[in-house]
Structure formats: C-alpha cells, structure tokens
Design brief:
By secondary structure, the chain is of the alpha+beta class. Helix content is 41%, strand content 22%. The strands form six sheets. Strands 1-15-3-11-12 form a five-stranded antiparallel β-sheet, with no helix packed on it. A four-stranded antiparallel β-sheet has the order 7-8-4-10, with helices on one face. The chain starts with 14 loop residues before the first helix and ends in a 9-residue tail after the last helix.
Amino acid sequence: MAGLSSPGIGSGLDVTGIVTGLVQSEQAPFESRIASQEQTATSKITAFGSLVSAVSAFEDAAKKLNDATNFELNKISPTSNEFFSTSVTSEAAPSSFKVEVVSIAQGQKITSGAYADDDTVGSGTMSLTVNGSTLDLTLDGTETLRDLKDKINEAEGNPGITASIVTDNDGQHLVFTSDDIGLDNAITIAVTDDDGNDADALGLSKFAFSGTDTADMLQTQEPKDAEILIDNFLRVTQSSNLFTDAIEGVSINVKKANDVGDNNAITVSQDTSAVGEALAEFASSYNTFLETSVSLGRVNSESQIVGKLVGESLLRSLTSQVKNILSGSESNGGLSLAALGITTTREGLLDVDETVLKSGVDNNFEGVKNLFVGDDSIMGKLTETLEGYTGGDGLIQVKINSYKTTLDRLDEERANFAEKMTALENRLFSQFNAMDLLVGQLNSTGSYLTAQLDSLPGVVKQN
C-alpha cells in the first residue's frame, strides 16, 4: 500500500497537533528557565550600569578636590573699569598694585593732499616701509589715486599698510593706515621720481614722508606705544595694549589713559569660592551615589520592592569603604568634613552648612588643602578606592561583563536547544507517520476481509 500523504489520514488522529504538543511540553520548562535567567542577567547589567554612573560622577567630584591646581586659583579685583580690564592666573601672588594708564597704543595715519578723480599720481618708484619691511611699487604715470590704493592693498609684499580714499570738499585724499599699533609700526614713504627731483613736491614726490609733515602729506594720527605706571614708580612701555608680563600672572588690557597722577588699584587674592563650590558638588554627588546604592540593595517589606542588587557583596563592600574613608580626619590638625560644615543626616546623606563651609575654607585654606590634596588625603584615598570599581578593568565592569557572558551563553543554549527540538519534531513525525501508515493499512485490510466475509453464501448481514 502506498504511503499516506497527510499525517493522521490513515488513523484519523491529529498527528500534527500531537507532535506539536509533545515538542512544546519539552520546550516550556526550558524557555521558562532561560527567560528567567535572561531577565535576571539583564536586570543586573542595568543595575550595575546605574551604579557605575553614580560612582563615576562621585569619583570625578573627588578627583576635583584632590587636584592641587583647584587650590591655586586666584581672583582679581576689579576685572574691568573705565581704564583697563584684568585677568589673573595661578602664577600670580596675592598682592595689590596701583596702576596708572599713561597712554594707549595706536596706529599711524598719514593723509595725502587732494586729487581730482582722474588725476594721475606721477611715475617712478614708491617704497613703503613698516617695521623693517619694505614694499616697492613701480608706477608708469597712468595711475590715478584709486589705482595707487589698489596696488598697495593688493600687493603680496604689503608690509602692513591699508590705503583708503577719503573725499572732502577739496577732492580725494589717500589715507595710509598702519595695520598694527605702536611706534615700531610707523610708516615711512620714500620715492624715486622719474622727473629726477624727489623733493620738488611735484608728481610722485608729493607722497614722500619720513615722520615730519609736509605740504602734501600730513600725519593725522601719530603712532603711540602703550604705557603704564605701576605703584607710581615702575614704568612699562610696549607696542600692544595688552600687558601680560608687567605683573607675573596678571594681564592688563588698557582702554583709556588716566589723568596724570591718577591711578586705580588692583588686588590679587586666593579664590576660595571655587573650593567651596567643589565641596558642595562633592556632597551632592555622594548623596546621589548613596541613594542609588541604597535603592539597589534594599528590600522594602511594605511595598514588596526588592533592589536589583540585593545580596551583591560588591555593593556592600563599596558602600562600607566609602563611609569609612569619609569618617576619617587629616592627621595634622585633625580637620574633618564635619569641621567644614559637612555633616551626615539620619539617612546617611551629606548635609552642607554653607556658612560654616565658607568660614572654614576662608580661615583655614591650607588646612582644607591638606585635607583633600595628596595620595594620603581623604580625597586621595577615596579616589584610589573608587578607581578600583570604575573604568574598563574596575570591579563593577567585571560584574557587568560576567552577566553579558551569561547572556551570550544563554543565547548559545537556546540555539542548541532549538536544533534539538527540530530533531525531536522530525523524529516524532517520522514515528507517528509510520504508525499512521500501519493503522491505515490494517484498517484497509480489515475492510477488505469484512467485505469478503459478507459476500460468502449463507452469511446473513446484520445491520
């Protein structure tokens, strides 16, 4: 008898349903176990991720207080007034000075005589010099004032001069302006006139200038250096309006000259506010860390909420180490966080008394620095401890990596199990199909025998 083309057609059984049910009965406990383990691993990864974020922010705040440069910041007063603006670096020593702005540096302007729009300027060679650099221009006698302006401005070897045309009631004037300020950038113009006379005030000779006004070239703005007088005694002169080397660590940008004999005081002092702000930031980041660790490791019997890291020894160890370090005090003088107005609440959080903190920092700045700066300080020990938990090789990341490995293993188990279930399904179908075929054959044989018996003489068929 030929094989059956549809499972169950021979026996009348739902072979497909039976096989599917048997396979699912094998899969169900496996999937339940795998899903539970995956959920646990994923939950742990998320929880440790939250923890490492809080710890990293806390570590950054501790490092900031452990950095000596944050205790070497200065402030300066005033930062700006009518006569100058100031800035200060950590190189400056706390001190006060009187500063008089004697003069402001400025560039030079030289203005030519008047020309009509189509007047030519003459022929020959014009040499323009600024601070040792010279530009030589050759003119053929066809150039107008505008042409000369363009030749100067567009020349590759321009030594630092901008030419402009200004028109007044008399006509057009060519204005030569030095690009940089200060006496060193004064402009000199020498000419070699094709008429053979460089001093006849005709042709190109009209543009000659060597620092003294002529009938055709007037200095409309003299070049000046900037000059300041410090403490009515020390005189500093330079071509720039920004003084960076007069007082070590202090920059003074002059804006306006004082009246003769007048001056303004500047004061450099330690900037203790930055340390106070860093301490407040530290307390805030610690509180975030503690709240995160408590939330992750707590069992709330009332709400039946269980922290995702309950039972994790790493969490208990980290919290314990941090609390032990913060409860310590600096050996020289016994200064502690509590003495600076940073105390612990009943919930274990840090509370900052701004008044006590400011007073403690202002009155014992060196003591505060010693408490926080250095490998053996509170912040030094804390930073070293936290570094062991954060980073690519930290204990928290090791935990995260172990749970990621668990997820990879579970994926591999699921793939292997899927192959086993496929093989089981194929085997069951094969077995049930064979049975179905046999039952079909037996049913067919039975029907045949029944028909033959029914056709025998003397056989009475009973309905």
